[in-house]
Amino acid sequence: MFRPFLRSWFCPRLRMTAGGLLSLLTACHASFDNPSATDLANRIIVNDFEAVSGWVHPDVPSLSIEQAHSGRWSVRVGPGQEYGYGCRLPLAQASAARPSKLRLRAWFFRSAPELSGGIAVKITKGDTDEKLQFETLGAADVPVGAWTARELTFPLDARVTGADHLEVFAWGPGLTGPLYVDDVELSAVK
């Protein structure tokens, strides 16, 4: 049985993962202008990273004040920091009912033209590393030096169940400069 939507980006029952991702307790705010009541009801995870400061482990440096779309904080990936903060939780904790599609939204700031990276959504079989689905919202076509909103809607693989785990994280493999991510939202689409 699926439980009600989580209203935060990080799940309080999580610990540091093998990949070095730290899940944190946080309360998050709406990040996209004037969401409808339906948009609010379908939100699974949202983070503008403002409530993250102070909860972070000092050895995980992806929280940044160098650039931010809203507020003061964002997540930075780049040289020496391929993965940013993320969330990992069972799908049953993420949604009241199994969604047929998911919509990922985020704001990106590229500091150089050769930078790509973005946000990844990975769904794994239960507590294993067996990947059932992997989707990315890339930043390769985001203009340099300007915050730009991006969105990706994708169908949920038919093999995915409530016992499977959903992960969402900033990702910047092989970047030569920083990529900033802010105001991340994952929603169910009916």
User: Could you give a short account of the major beta sheet?
Assistant: 6 strands, antiparallel
Mean pLDDT: 74
Give the proportion of residues in helices.
under 10%
Amino-to-carboxy terminus distance: 18 Å
Strand content: 35-45%
Shape assignment: globular
What is the total tally of β strands? 10
Rg: 15 Å
- Based on the structure, what is the oligomeric state of the protein chains? single chain
Put simply, the count of helices is 2
> What structural class should be given to the helix and strand makeup?
mainly beta
Helix and strand sequence: HEEEEHEEEEEE
Poorly predicted runs are 1-32
Provide a brief overview of the structure.
By secondary structure, this protein is mostly beta strands. The chain has helices at residues 37-42, 91-94, and strands spanning 43-47, 63-64, 74-77, 83-90, 101-110, 118-124, 131-138, 148-155, 165-171, 179-189.
Task: Explain how this protein is built.
There is one protein chain. The chain is globular, with a radius of gyration of 15 Å. It is built from two helices and ten strands; from the N terminus they run αββββαββββββ. The protein has 190 residues and is mainly beta.
